[in-house]
Amino acid sequence: MRSRGQVNRQRVRLAFSGDVVPEPDTLLTLDGKEVGHVTRAARIWDPTRILGMGYARKEANAPGTVLQCAGGTATIVK
């Protein structure tokens, strides 16, 4: 890590809007700029929602940040 400088992307937990479970490698954007991608997502039934994980750039990984993805939005949760 030391020889490569700073880490530009971090693993984040995501809560998705909509009814479609995003596929792996779905792009995450913020203001039209690519800031990450989804690694996995699944539907949870109690309560009904879609959760997942992915990687996001450090400028877009604060809890509560809303990112756009195919089929809806993804909110970074803590």
Q: Strand fraction band?
A: over 45%
Which regions contain 5 or more consecutive residues with pLDDT less than 50? Answer: none
Question: Structural class given helices, strands, pairing?
Answer: mainly beta
SSE arrangement, N to C: EEEEEE
**How large, in whole angstroms, is the Cα Rg?**
13 Å
Can you walk through the features of this model?
The chain is built from no helices and 6 strands. It has strands at residues 9-16, 27-30, 33-45, 48-57, 66-69, 72-77. It has a 6-stranded antiparallel β-sheet, with no helix packed on it. The protein starts with 8 loop residues before the first strand and ends with a strand.
Topology:
Layout (H helix, E strand, L loop, with lengths): L8 E8 L10 E4 L2 E13 L2 E10 L8 E4 L2 E6 L1
Antiparallel strand pairs: 1-4, 1-6, 2-3, 3-4, 5-6
Give a concise summary.
With 78 residues, this protein is mainly β.
Core attributes:
single chain, 78 residues, 6-stranded antiparallel sheet
